[in-house]
Amino acid sequence: MRIAQLLKSTDYGTDVVVKGWVRTKRGNKNVAFIALNDGSCVANIQIVADLAKFADETLKPVTTGSCICVKGRLVESLGAGQGVEVQADEIEVYGTADPDSYPLQKKGHTLEFLRDIAYLRPRTNTFGAILRIRHAMAYAIHKYFNDRGFFYLHTPLITASDCEGAGAMFQVTTLDMNNLPKTEDGKVDYTQDFFGKSCSLTVSGQLEGELGALSLGQIYTFGPTFRAENSNTPRHLAEFWMIEPEMAFYDLEDNMALAEDFLKYLIGYALENCREDLEFMNKMWDNELIERLKFVTENDFVRLDYTEGVRILKESGRKFEFPCDWGCDLQSEHERYLVEEHFKRPVILINYPKEIKAFYMKQNEDGKTVRAMDVLFPKIGEIIGGSEREADFGKLNARVKELNMPEKDIWWYLNTRRWGSAPHSGFGLGFERLLLFVTGMGNIRDVIPFPRTPKNAEF
Ligand code: 4AD
Ligand code: MG
User: Is a pLDDT exceeding 80 seen at residue 55?
Assistant: First the structure.
């Protein structure tokens, strides 16, 4: 039985077997108390070993980090704050953990230190809680869409198209880097590469997602995406997970309504289903976490034009590190000013200048802006980016030409606008940005099991 179940049990006197990792061992000359954790919940179960029953050699290797199997009886606990404990009859040590070398000791460790030993940090209370919340959020995402008739579409990770047009892609090749085949004009000859052309890891599943929406009606993708941007910030990963719903017949209004409902559902799901772990995070890392989560589920998001947002920023009198004029790409400091100081709630910013947004967004009548939307969150800044898509072949084709995008890689996408085009919209939610918000953590490296960032691909 898992410890999470046992701790809720009142079957006093029944025989039980528990297996897990020792957090601490203490005691006196009559009895040893072992705090055991098996990862099923943040709480430990107390194992009581009567020293009259156990030889010294049995208990000596039971140290912090060792893995044991205990057979015994579940009894009501007299200790404060715990309902049950296990009176041990037999203890088997599966794996020892030499106290001189085991890196995780009883004292708290810094998050920086734990990042260096990311292969062991799931054994800590904090990372146990984060990884359980991560699991619950992944499940809730599938549940949300399944309950609403969306289909999970698996889009490729290897692609030849740069969806966001930012050129921040990781190349995928089997060519010999030390002996590259060349064409007559001295360029790399990709016809000899595995796929017969230059390919990369995808930055987004959206382009293929749109094909799904224009056939199945409403789909979502949920998978890893890759960005080779050299940004070492607490909010960027080189490999992150993204959820991208795409809906036929949705305009920007519908898209915003879905994004707001989706985020509120996920946060509400965490409040309802991850209570113990959230309370632990609230106590250890962020005393306002649960309040903030509740606040977001209970209040409407502000909807604001980019132009209006820039006016507010300029009239704020605030000295920003990067001053902002109409046309500038908002920095995190601007986003957070709007959300945390001006409106004091999440903001959906829409109708951005077309120059700072991707080629596929629906162009507005003004010729200057596109029907983009970014959802901005407290402490995070941008958590969602999305838009209504340009459904008109002529306009999309003109934009592709204007940006000099290679037609040989994007022709199939353009064709969706030639045959049975439809108004449609979608967005991308950064899974780790969501988890930053839900767990209260401050660094994105701490909400993914094995972070990938510039100069770091350990484990
Ligand atoms: O705004 P982005 O670049 O939008 C897209 O990729 C669209 N194709 C989505 C769509 O419309 N289907 O990225 C979407 C979200 C961001 O709002 C952010 O939450 C997250 O993905 N994100 C990152 N998360 C972690 N590390 C990075 N380097 C990220 N880049 C974007
Ligand atoms: Mg964006």
Answer: yes
Residue with tokens 């589920």: 297
Model pTM? Answer: 0.97
Secondary-structure percent of the chain, ordered helix, strand, coil, rounded to 5: 35, 25, 40
Which residue is closest in CA terms to ligand 1's atom 23?
430
Tell how far the Cα of 114 is from the centroid of ligand 2, in angstroms: 30
Contacts (Cβ under 8 Å, ≥6 apart) of 25:
32, 33, 34, 35, 59, 62, 63, 64
DSSP summary character for residue 378? T
Q: Residue 287: is it exposed, middle or buried by C-beta count within 10 angstroms (0-12/13-18/19+)?
A: exposed
Q: Which of 347, 443, 433, 429 is nearest to 141 (CA)?
A: 429
From the CB of 206, is ligand 1 less than 6 Å away? yes
The H or E element that residue 312 is part of is helix 306-315
Expressed in angstroms and rounded, the spacing between residue 429 Cα and the centre of ligand 1 is: 6
Euclidean distance between CA atoms 65 and 123, whole angstroms = 8
Q: Is the CB of 123 under 6 A from ligand 1?
A: no
How far apart, in Å, are the Cα atoms of 159 and each of 199, 208, 235, 413?
A: 6, 10, 25, 13
Of 197, 144, 238, 260, which is closest to residue 452 (Cα–Cα)? 238
Residue 20 in contact with ligand 1 by CB distance below 6 A: no
**What contacts 386, CB < 8 A, 6 or more positions away?**
255, 259, 372, 373, 374, 375, 425, 426, 427, 428
d(CA 12, CA 187) in angstroms, rounded, equals: 75
What percentage of the chain carries pLDDT values higher than 90?
A: 93
Give the Å distances, CA to CA, from 225 to 159, 188, 272, 283: 11, 26, 29, 33
Pocket of ligand 1 contains residue 240 by CB under 6 Å:
yes
**Using N-to-C axis directions, what is the helix angle for 252-273 and 275-284, rounded to 10°?**
90
3 state DSSP class of 233 = coil
How confident is the model over 76-106, as pLDDT tens digits? 988 777 789 999 999 999 999 999 999 998 7
